[in-house]
Structure formats: structure tokens, C-alpha cells
């Protein structure tokens, strides 16, 4: 039975662990790429909503300032009254009474039918337009956990193929482990060649002048960046201010 080598501190972010709830570095990169692909859709949606609101405002202004309403009203009343009780008066009342007439006319018209009728998007329509995009963004964030099941499904249906894949990745890790120390030495050498910045020099001076400030301004490991603990070891060279955690040392 072979024992697998444990991962080093710097190798841990390069691998995805299915049981971890936190989103890891590789998964975060894919998530950011998926969200970036949603940006054109979001910009197009904002452009369409803004254009609809702009056109609705323009049409409302045109309708408000171009609206004209006409109102025409006329009234006609004709009444002939013949006084007297003679035969001639009675005859005139029966003949001239037919001329009595009365009518009122009122006409109202406008150019509303000729004006544009703006019909902007309602609040419900805006929500119905934004909900699919919001659901797409949620799916981009939640796709990390279903993607982790791919390897379990492949191992269940194709165990031999998945075993070959795992052995290949393990051998690749071993090959990388051979040059890992040299790579870390080169990284430390490059950092040592760079002159320390003004902030770094100021923090070092404060730590030497006031030792109680070390609790506030804790240093970190030169390689992996873990905050300082009692197990960290400084470089034995007195001219070097590098600090290393126990695994990196």
C-alpha cells in the first residue's frame, strides 16, 4: 500500500477539494469569467431599458405640447307668440306656432388620434426582464458545487479511466515536487534582490524600537504568506529579515 505525499502549503490552492464549502482559487477564476460573460447581456439590457425610457419621455413631451382641442357650441331658439282672442289671432297662432323651434349643438374634437401614443414598460415588465439575468448570475455563482460532482460521476461509471487520470496527476505532482525547492529558492533570491520599500523599512524600525508593537504589525512567511506565529523561524543571516513558517523552513 502506497502512502500519498501530503500537499505543501503552496500547492494547496492549486487543487480543488470537494468537501470544502469555500470557493477555491481555480473555481473563483472560472466564476469570474462566467460573470464577465454576463456583462454584455447586462449592458444590452440597460441600454434597452434606457432607450425605452428615453423614447417614452420624448413621446410624452410631444403629446403634451402638441395636443390641441376644439370646442364648438351653438344654440338656436325661435318662439312666436301671438296675443289676442280674435279669430285672426287664433289663426296666426295655429299657423305660426309651427315655426317655433329650439336646438343646442355642442361639438368637441382634438388631434389626439394623430399624436403618438407612448406605451412605456411597466414596473412588472422591468422586473420580468431583470429576473432572468439575475437568475443567470446566481447560476454562475452556484455552478461551482455541481461541477465538483463531475469527478465522482466519472469515477462511478468509468473507474479505470478515472484511476488512470488520478495516477497521471499524482506523477505530475511528483515531477513538480522535484523542482519545487529550486523554484522556491529562486523566488526568495528574487525577493532579496529587490530593495525594501519605505513602508517596510518604517515597520522594521518600529518593531526594533518598540517590541510591543510586534503583536500589531505581525510579519508573514516569505513564501506562503501565513501570518507570524511562535513556530515561525527567522533567517539565520543577521542581514536578512526573512521569516519562514515551519513547513516552508
From TrEMBL:
<dbReference type="InterPro" id="IPR058842">
    <property type="entry name" value="DCST1_C"/>
</dbReference>
<dbReference type="GO" id="GO:0016874">
    <property type="term" value="F:ligase activity"/>
</dbReference>
<protein>
    <submittedName>
        <fullName>DCST1 ligase</fullName>
    </submittedName>
</protein>
<feature type="transmembrane region" description="Helical">
    <location>
        <begin position="41"/>
        <end position="62"/>
    </location>
</feature>
<feature type="domain" description="Dendritic cell-specific transmembrane protein-like">
    <location>
        <begin position="1"/>
        <end position="170"/>
    </location>
</feature>
<feature type="transmembrane region" description="Helical">
    <location>
        <begin position="126"/>
        <end position="145"/>
    </location>
</feature>
<keyword id="KW-0436">Ligase</keyword>
<keyword id="KW-0472">Membrane</keyword>
<dbReference type="InterPro" id="IPR012858">
    <property type="entry name" value="DC_STAMP-like"/>
</dbReference>
<dbReference type="GO" id="GO:0016020">
    <property type="term" value="C:membrane"/>
</dbReference>
<dbReference type="Pfam" id="PF07782">
    <property type="entry name" value="DC_STAMP"/>
</dbReference>
<feature type="domain" description="E3 ubiquitin-protein ligase DCST1-like C-terminal">
    <location>
        <begin position="219"/>
        <end position="249"/>
    </location>
</feature>
<keyword id="KW-0812">Transmembrane</keyword>
<dbReference type="InterPro" id="IPR051856">
    <property type="entry name" value="CSR-E3_Ligase_Protein"/>
</dbReference>
<keyword id="KW-1133">Transmembrane helix</keyword>
<dbReference type="Pfam" id="PF26037">
    <property type="entry name" value="zf-RING_DCST1_C"/>
</dbReference>
